[in-house]
Design brief:
Strand 2 and strand 3 form a beta hairpin. Helices cover 4% and strands 54% of the residues. With 397 residues, the chain is mostly beta strands. The strands form 2 sheets. Strands 2-4-5-8-9-10-11-12-13-14-15-16-17-18-19-21 form a 16-stranded antiparallel β-barrel. Strands 6-7 form a two-stranded antiparallel sheet. It has one domain: Porin.
Protein backbone atom coordinates (compact mmCIF):
# COMPACT_ATOMS: atom_id res chain seq x y z
CA UNK A 1 0.00 0.00 0.00
CA UNK A 2 1.00 3.54 -0.50
CA UNK A 3 2.56 5.89 1.97
CA UNK A 4 0.84 8.92 3.48
CA UNK A 5 2.07 11.90 5.46
CA UNK A 6 1.55 11.04 9.15
CA UNK A 7 1.10 13.19 12.24
CA UNK A 8 3.30 11.72 15.01
CA UNK A 9 3.63 11.45 18.78
CA UNK A 10 7.12 11.93 20.15
CA UNK A 11 8.01 9.28 22.74
CA UNK A 12 11.49 10.41 23.83
CA UNK A 13 13.81 13.39 23.47
CA UNK A 14 17.20 12.82 25.09
CA UNK A 15 20.30 15.01 25.30
CA UNK A 16 23.42 13.33 23.95
CA UNK A 17 26.05 12.91 26.65
CA UNK A 18 28.69 15.63 26.66
CA UNK A 19 27.30 17.45 23.58
CA UNK A 20 24.80 20.19 24.28
CA UNK A 21 23.53 20.52 20.69
CA UNK A 22 23.26 16.79 19.89
CA UNK A 23 19.76 15.36 20.44
CA UNK A 24 17.98 12.08 19.73
CA UNK A 25 14.30 11.44 19.14
CA UNK A 26 12.16 8.34 18.66
CA UNK A 27 8.62 8.61 17.28
CA UNK A 28 5.74 6.14 17.35
CA UNK A 29 3.25 6.53 14.49
CA UNK A 30 0.60 4.59 12.64
CA UNK A 31 -2.55 4.40 10.52
CA UNK A 32 -5.78 2.47 11.11
CA UNK A 33 -7.99 2.29 7.99
CA UNK A 34 -11.21 0.26 7.95
CA UNK A 35 -14.26 0.10 5.68
CA UNK A 36 -17.45 -1.71 4.76
CA UNK A 37 -16.83 -2.93 1.21
CA UNK A 38 -19.04 -4.24 -1.59
CA UNK A 39 -17.57 -5.91 -4.67
CA UNK A 40 -19.74 -6.91 -7.65
CA UNK A 41 -18.63 -9.73 -9.97
CA UNK A 42 -16.02 -11.44 -7.80
CA UNK A 43 -15.22 -15.11 -8.42
CA UNK A 44 -15.94 -17.68 -5.72
CA UNK A 45 -14.18 -21.04 -5.34
CA UNK A 46 -16.22 -22.41 -8.26
CA UNK A 47 -15.26 -19.43 -10.45
CA UNK A 48 -18.82 -18.14 -10.44
CA UNK A 49 -19.43 -14.39 -10.23
CA UNK A 50 -20.84 -13.34 -6.87
CA UNK A 51 -21.28 -10.20 -4.77
CA UNK A 52 -18.82 -9.90 -1.88
CA UNK A 53 -19.74 -7.81 1.18
CA UNK A 54 -17.60 -7.45 4.28
CA UNK A 55 -15.08 -5.41 6.24
CA UNK A 56 -11.91 -4.46 4.37
CA UNK A 57 -8.97 -2.47 5.72
CA UNK A 58 -6.31 -0.39 4.03
CA UNK A 59 -8.18 1.33 1.20
CA UNK A 60 -6.69 4.82 1.40
CA UNK A 61 -3.68 3.80 3.49
CA UNK A 62 -2.18 0.46 4.41
CA UNK A 63 -2.71 -0.33 8.10
CA UNK A 64 0.57 0.06 9.94
CA UNK A 65 2.46 1.07 13.05
CA UNK A 66 6.07 2.07 13.19
CA UNK A 67 9.02 3.63 14.94
CA UNK A 68 11.36 6.19 13.43
CA UNK A 69 14.16 8.16 14.95
CA UNK A 70 17.05 10.54 14.48
CA UNK A 71 20.25 11.34 16.33
CA UNK A 72 21.98 14.66 15.74
CA UNK A 73 25.68 13.92 15.20
CA UNK A 74 26.63 17.57 14.71
CA UNK A 75 27.68 19.56 11.66
CA UNK A 76 24.38 18.90 9.87
CA UNK A 77 24.84 15.11 10.04
CA UNK A 78 22.16 12.83 11.53
CA UNK A 79 21.76 9.11 12.06
CA UNK A 80 18.25 7.94 11.09
CA UNK A 81 16.21 4.74 11.24
CA UNK A 82 12.67 3.52 10.52
CA UNK A 83 10.87 0.27 11.36
CA UNK A 84 7.34 -0.12 9.98
CA UNK A 85 4.97 -3.06 10.46
CA UNK A 86 1.78 -3.76 8.51
CA UNK A 87 -1.21 -5.54 10.03
CA UNK A 88 -4.67 -6.86 9.16
CA UNK A 89 -7.18 -4.86 11.20
CA UNK A 90 -9.87 -7.56 10.92
CA UNK A 91 -7.76 -10.45 12.20
CA UNK A 92 -4.98 -8.72 14.15
CA UNK A 93 -2.38 -10.67 12.17
CA UNK A 94 0.88 -9.19 10.92
CA UNK A 95 1.02 -8.12 7.29
CA UNK A 96 1.81 -10.74 4.65
CA UNK A 97 4.37 -10.24 1.90
CA UNK A 98 4.53 -12.89 -0.82
CA UNK A 99 2.54 -15.17 1.50
CA UNK A 100 4.93 -14.75 4.45
CA UNK A 101 4.33 -12.67 7.57
CA UNK A 102 7.01 -10.17 8.55
CA UNK A 103 7.01 -7.99 11.65
CA UNK A 104 8.61 -5.06 9.83
CA UNK A 105 7.59 -6.00 6.30
CA UNK A 106 6.67 -2.48 5.18
CA UNK A 107 10.00 -0.75 5.91
CA UNK A 108 13.15 -1.44 7.91
CA UNK A 109 16.24 0.70 7.35
CA UNK A 110 19.05 2.70 8.95
CA UNK A 111 21.30 5.38 7.52
CA UNK A 112 22.87 8.83 7.59
CA UNK A 113 21.42 12.15 6.49
CA UNK A 114 23.23 15.43 5.86
CA UNK A 115 21.67 18.82 5.17
CA UNK A 116 24.00 19.54 2.23
CA UNK A 117 24.97 16.11 0.90
CA UNK A 118 21.75 14.10 1.07
CA UNK A 119 20.69 10.81 2.66
CA UNK A 120 22.03 7.24 2.40
CA UNK A 121 19.97 4.37 3.85
CA UNK A 122 20.33 0.59 4.03
CA UNK A 123 17.61 -2.09 4.40
CA UNK A 124 14.07 -2.85 3.18
CA UNK A 125 12.79 0.25 1.41
CA UNK A 126 10.50 1.82 -1.19
CA UNK A 127 11.81 2.07 -4.74
CA UNK A 128 12.50 5.44 -6.43
CA UNK A 129 9.26 5.42 -8.49
CA UNK A 130 7.16 5.01 -5.35
CA UNK A 131 9.10 7.81 -3.64
CA UNK A 132 8.96 10.37 -6.44
CA UNK A 133 6.40 9.49 -9.14
CA UNK A 134 3.53 7.97 -7.12
CA UNK A 135 2.94 11.13 -5.00
CA UNK A 136 1.81 12.96 -8.15
CA UNK A 137 -0.93 10.42 -9.00
CA UNK A 138 -4.50 9.79 -7.81
CA UNK A 139 -3.28 6.79 -5.80
CA UNK A 140 -1.55 9.21 -3.42
CA UNK A 141 -4.92 10.74 -2.47
CA UNK A 142 -7.38 7.84 -2.66
CA UNK A 143 -5.30 4.68 -2.53
CA UNK A 144 -5.84 1.28 -4.10
CA UNK A 145 -9.21 2.06 -5.70
CA UNK A 146 -7.37 4.55 -7.94
CA UNK A 147 -4.41 2.21 -8.64
CA UNK A 148 -3.49 0.56 -11.93
CA UNK A 149 -5.47 -2.64 -12.66
CA UNK A 150 -3.41 -5.50 -11.26
CA UNK A 151 -0.91 -2.85 -10.10
CA UNK A 152 1.15 -3.80 -13.17
CA UNK A 153 3.38 -0.71 -12.77
CA UNK A 154 3.68 -0.87 -8.96
CA UNK A 155 1.80 2.43 -8.68
CA UNK A 156 0.23 1.17 -5.42
CA UNK A 157 3.56 -0.11 -4.03
CA UNK A 158 2.76 -3.83 -4.10
CA UNK A 159 6.54 -4.34 -4.20
CA UNK A 160 9.11 -3.39 -1.59
CA UNK A 161 12.83 -3.89 -1.95
CA UNK A 162 15.07 -5.94 0.35
CA UNK A 163 18.79 -5.45 0.97
CA UNK A 164 18.68 -2.04 -0.70
CA UNK A 165 21.19 0.81 -0.64
CA UNK A 166 19.49 4.13 -1.45
CA UNK A 167 20.77 7.67 -1.96
CA UNK A 168 18.43 10.69 -1.97
CA UNK A 169 19.85 14.10 -2.84
CA UNK A 170 18.89 17.33 -1.08
CA UNK A 171 16.46 19.58 -2.95
CA UNK A 172 18.49 21.84 -5.27
CA UNK A 173 16.41 24.75 -6.60
CA UNK A 174 13.34 22.52 -6.88
CA UNK A 175 15.24 19.51 -8.28
CA UNK A 176 15.83 16.26 -6.41
CA UNK A 177 17.06 12.83 -7.52
CA UNK A 178 17.33 9.36 -6.06
CA UNK A 179 19.18 6.14 -6.87
CA UNK A 180 18.90 2.64 -5.41
CA UNK A 181 20.61 -0.75 -5.77
CA UNK A 182 19.48 -3.97 -4.06
CA UNK A 183 21.55 -7.14 -3.77
CA UNK A 184 20.11 -10.44 -4.94
CA UNK A 185 22.02 -12.43 -2.34
CA UNK A 186 22.96 -15.39 -4.56
CA UNK A 187 26.49 -16.76 -4.04
CA UNK A 188 28.55 -16.67 -7.22
CA UNK A 189 25.82 -14.84 -9.18
CA UNK A 190 25.81 -11.17 -8.21
CA UNK A 191 23.16 -10.19 -10.76
CA UNK A 192 20.69 -12.96 -9.89
CA UNK A 193 17.66 -11.49 -8.15
CA UNK A 194 19.05 -7.95 -7.98
CA UNK A 195 17.06 -4.72 -8.37
CA UNK A 196 18.00 -1.17 -9.20
CA UNK A 197 16.32 2.10 -10.03
CA UNK A 198 16.61 5.87 -10.32
CA UNK A 199 14.17 8.78 -10.39
CA UNK A 200 14.10 12.55 -10.33
CA UNK A 201 11.53 15.19 -9.54
CA UNK A 202 11.28 18.94 -10.17
CA UNK A 203 8.85 21.42 -8.71
CA UNK A 204 8.31 25.09 -9.37
CA UNK A 205 5.36 26.92 -7.86
CA UNK A 206 2.19 24.87 -8.40
CA UNK A 207 3.75 22.55 -10.99
CA UNK A 208 5.60 19.29 -10.30
CA UNK A 209 6.96 16.63 -12.64
CA UNK A 210 8.75 13.35 -11.92
CA UNK A 211 10.07 10.35 -13.82
CA UNK A 212 12.23 7.30 -13.39
CA UNK A 213 12.98 3.65 -14.09
CA UNK A 214 12.93 0.57 -11.86
CA UNK A 215 14.31 -2.86 -12.81
CA UNK A 216 13.70 -6.12 -10.91
CA UNK A 217 15.55 -9.32 -11.85
CA UNK A 218 14.21 -12.73 -10.92
CA UNK A 219 16.38 -15.54 -9.56
CA UNK A 220 18.20 -17.23 -12.44
CA UNK A 221 17.58 -20.72 -11.01
CA UNK A 222 14.48 -22.48 -12.46
CA UNK A 223 14.20 -24.52 -9.25
CA UNK A 224 14.07 -21.36 -7.12
CA UNK A 225 11.31 -19.89 -9.27
CA UNK A 226 9.28 -23.11 -9.16
CA UNK A 227 9.63 -23.38 -5.38
CA UNK A 228 8.47 -19.78 -4.85
CA UNK A 229 5.51 -19.67 -7.22
CA UNK A 230 7.46 -18.00 -9.99
CA UNK A 231 9.02 -14.92 -8.40
CA UNK A 232 12.12 -15.71 -6.31
CA UNK A 233 14.16 -12.52 -6.32
CA UNK A 234 16.12 -11.90 -3.15
CA UNK A 235 15.78 -8.14 -3.60
CA UNK A 236 12.03 -7.95 -4.33
CA UNK A 237 10.58 -11.06 -2.73
CA UNK A 238 7.00 -9.77 -2.89
CA UNK A 239 7.19 -7.94 -6.28
CA UNK A 240 3.80 -6.90 -7.68
CA UNK A 241 2.42 -10.42 -8.03
CA UNK A 242 1.43 -10.89 -4.39
CA UNK A 243 -2.16 -9.66 -4.70
CA UNK A 244 -3.04 -12.62 -6.96
CA UNK A 245 -4.54 -10.50 -9.73
CA UNK A 246 -5.27 -12.52 -12.87
CA UNK A 247 -3.86 -9.61 -14.90
CA UNK A 248 -0.28 -10.27 -13.74
CA UNK A 249 -0.20 -13.61 -11.91
CA UNK A 250 0.77 -15.69 -14.98
CA UNK A 251 3.91 -13.55 -15.41
CA UNK A 252 5.36 -14.13 -11.93
CA UNK A 253 8.06 -16.36 -13.48
CA UNK A 254 9.39 -13.50 -15.65
CA UNK A 255 13.14 -13.22 -16.08
CA UNK A 256 12.86 -9.52 -15.23
CA UNK A 257 10.39 -6.67 -14.88
CA UNK A 258 11.29 -3.17 -16.06
CA UNK A 259 9.07 -0.16 -15.26
CA UNK A 260 9.51 3.30 -16.79
CA UNK A 261 7.13 5.88 -15.34
CA UNK A 262 6.48 9.63 -15.53
CA UNK A 263 3.87 11.89 -13.92
CA UNK A 264 3.04 15.58 -13.74
CA UNK A 265 0.80 17.58 -11.43
CA UNK A 266 -0.58 21.13 -11.46
CA UNK A 267 -2.50 22.80 -8.63
CA UNK A 268 -4.80 25.73 -9.47
CA UNK A 269 -6.73 27.02 -6.48
CA UNK A 270 -8.98 24.20 -5.23
CA UNK A 271 -8.22 22.02 -8.29
CA UNK A 272 -5.46 19.43 -8.65
CA UNK A 273 -4.76 18.07 -12.13
CA UNK A 274 -2.37 15.20 -12.77
CA UNK A 275 -1.46 12.81 -15.56
CA UNK A 276 0.85 9.82 -15.74
CA UNK A 277 2.25 7.21 -18.11
CA UNK A 278 4.05 3.91 -17.50
CA UNK A 279 5.64 1.31 -19.73
CA UNK A 280 6.15 -2.15 -18.20
CA UNK A 281 8.26 -4.92 -19.75
CA UNK A 282 7.91 -8.48 -18.39
CA UNK A 283 10.63 -10.50 -20.09
CA UNK A 284 10.71 -14.26 -20.53
CA UNK A 285 13.50 -16.84 -20.58
CA UNK A 286 13.81 -20.63 -20.43
CA UNK A 287 12.65 -20.76 -16.81
CA UNK A 288 9.50 -18.66 -17.43
CA UNK A 289 6.02 -20.19 -17.64
CA UNK A 290 4.92 -17.99 -20.55
CA UNK A 291 6.20 -18.09 -24.12
CA UNK A 292 6.95 -14.48 -25.11
CA UNK A 293 7.55 -11.05 -23.56
CA UNK A 294 4.53 -9.22 -22.23
CA UNK A 295 4.24 -5.42 -22.26
CA UNK A 296 1.81 -3.12 -20.49
CA UNK A 297 1.26 0.54 -21.35
CA UNK A 298 -0.59 2.56 -18.73
CA UNK A 299 -2.02 6.08 -19.04
CA UNK A 300 -4.03 7.79 -16.34
CA UNK A 301 -5.48 11.09 -15.23
CA UNK A 302 -6.69 12.50 -11.93
CA UNK A 303 -8.81 15.51 -11.02
CA UNK A 304 -9.07 16.56 -7.39
CA UNK A 305 -11.37 19.30 -6.08
CA UNK A 306 -11.04 20.72 -2.56
CA UNK A 307 -14.69 21.66 -2.07
CA UNK A 308 -13.94 23.15 1.34
CA UNK A 309 -11.10 22.80 3.88
CA UNK A 310 -12.57 19.50 5.12
CA UNK A 311 -13.80 17.80 1.92
CA UNK A 312 -11.71 16.53 -1.02
CA UNK A 313 -13.41 15.04 -4.09
CA UNK A 314 -11.56 12.99 -6.71
CA UNK A 315 -12.10 11.53 -10.17
CA UNK A 316 -9.62 9.17 -11.82
CA UNK A 317 -9.33 7.30 -15.10
CA UNK A 318 -6.79 4.60 -15.97
CA UNK A 319 -6.22 2.90 -19.34
CA UNK A 320 -4.08 -0.24 -19.29
CA UNK A 321 -3.16 -2.12 -22.48
CA UNK A 322 -1.27 -5.41 -22.60
CA UNK A 323 0.44 -6.70 -25.73
CA UNK A 324 3.04 -9.23 -26.83
CA UNK A 325 2.20 -12.54 -25.18
CA UNK A 326 -1.51 -11.64 -24.87
CA UNK A 327 -3.54 -8.64 -25.96
CA UNK A 328 -5.92 -7.02 -23.46
CA UNK A 329 -7.27 -3.63 -22.45
CA UNK A 330 -8.65 -2.45 -19.09
CA UNK A 331 -10.60 0.80 -18.71
CA UNK A 332 -11.12 1.88 -15.09
CA UNK A 333 -13.01 4.89 -13.70
CA UNK A 334 -12.62 5.75 -9.99
CA UNK A 335 -14.46 8.17 -7.70
CA UNK A 336 -13.56 9.33 -4.20
CA UNK A 337 -14.62 11.63 -1.38
CA UNK A 338 -12.56 12.23 1.77
CA UNK A 339 -13.96 14.28 4.68
CA UNK A 340 -11.70 15.34 7.56
CA UNK A 341 -13.33 15.23 10.98
CA UNK A 342 -10.03 16.46 12.44
CA UNK A 343 -6.35 16.58 11.52
CA UNK A 344 -6.03 12.88 12.33
CA UNK A 345 -9.44 11.33 11.56
CA UNK A 346 -11.35 11.24 8.28
CA UNK A 347 -14.33 9.50 6.68
CA UNK A 348 -14.18 8.38 3.07
CA UNK A 349 -16.15 6.85 0.21
CA UNK A 350 -14.38 5.37 -2.82
CA UNK A 351 -15.72 3.46 -5.80
CA UNK A 352 -14.48 2.12 -9.12
CA UNK A 353 -15.83 0.49 -12.25
CA UNK A 354 -13.64 -1.49 -14.66
CA UNK A 355 -14.27 -3.02 -18.07
CA UNK A 356 -11.87 -5.54 -19.64
CA UNK A 357 -11.57 -7.01 -23.10
CA UNK A 358 -9.11 -9.19 -25.01
CA UNK A 359 -7.37 -12.30 -23.70
CA UNK A 360 -5.37 -13.13 -20.58
CA UNK A 361 -2.84 -15.86 -19.84
CA UNK A 362 -3.99 -18.47 -17.35
CA UNK A 363 -1.07 -20.93 -17.51
CA UNK A 364 1.93 -21.81 -19.66
CA UNK A 365 -0.34 -23.38 -22.29
CA UNK A 366 -3.77 -21.75 -21.87
CA UNK A 367 -5.40 -18.35 -22.29
CA UNK A 368 -8.95 -17.12 -21.77
CA UNK A 369 -11.13 -14.07 -22.19
CA UNK A 370 -9.78 -11.23 -20.06
CA UNK A 371 -11.63 -10.69 -16.77
CA UNK A 372 -11.85 -7.50 -14.74
CA UNK A 373 -9.74 -6.96 -11.59
CA UNK A 374 -9.98 -3.49 -10.01
CA UNK A 375 -6.86 -1.77 -8.73
CA UNK A 376 -4.52 -3.82 -6.57
CA UNK A 377 -7.18 -5.71 -4.58
CA UNK A 378 -6.80 -9.01 -6.44
CA UNK A 379 -10.59 -9.48 -6.67
CA UNK A 380 -10.69 -11.47 -9.92
CA UNK A 381 -13.81 -11.71 -12.05
CA UNK A 382 -14.93 -14.15 -14.73
CA UNK A 383 -16.87 -11.22 -16.18
CA UNK A 384 -15.60 -8.40 -18.35
CA UNK A 385 -16.77 -5.87 -15.74
CA UNK A 386 -16.42 -5.30 -12.02
CA UNK A 387 -17.60 -2.68 -9.50
CA UNK A 388 -16.16 -1.91 -6.07
CA UNK A 389 -17.48 0.44 -3.37
CA UNK A 390 -15.93 1.14 0.06
CA UNK A 391 -17.23 3.34 2.92
CA UNK A 392 -14.62 3.80 5.59
CA UNK A 393 -12.88 5.62 8.41
CA UNK A 394 -9.16 6.34 8.83
CA UNK A 395 -7.28 7.46 11.92
CA UNK A 396 -3.63 8.52 12.03
CA UNK A 397 -1.52 8.68 15.16
Amino acid sequence: MKRVALSTLSLALLAAAGTAHAQSSVTLYGVIDESIQWAHNTMDANKANKNLVGLAGGNLSGNRWGLKGTEDLGGGLKAIFQLESGFDINSGKMGKYNGNTAIFGRQAFVGLSHDQFGTVTFGRQYDPLVDMVQPLTGDNYFGSTFATPGDVDNNDNSSRTNSAVKYVSPVLQGFQFEGMYAFGGVAGATGSGQSWGAAATYGIGSFNVAGGYFRMDNASSPASRAANGGWASGATSDAMFQDGSQITQAYASAKSVGIASVAAQYVAGPFTFSGRYSNVQMRTDGASAFPSNQRFNVAGGFLGYQLNPALLLGLGYTWTHGSGDTSNTYNQVSLGADYNLSKRTDLYAVAAYQHANGTQRDSATTTSTAGASIGSYGFNSASSSQTLVSLGIRHKF
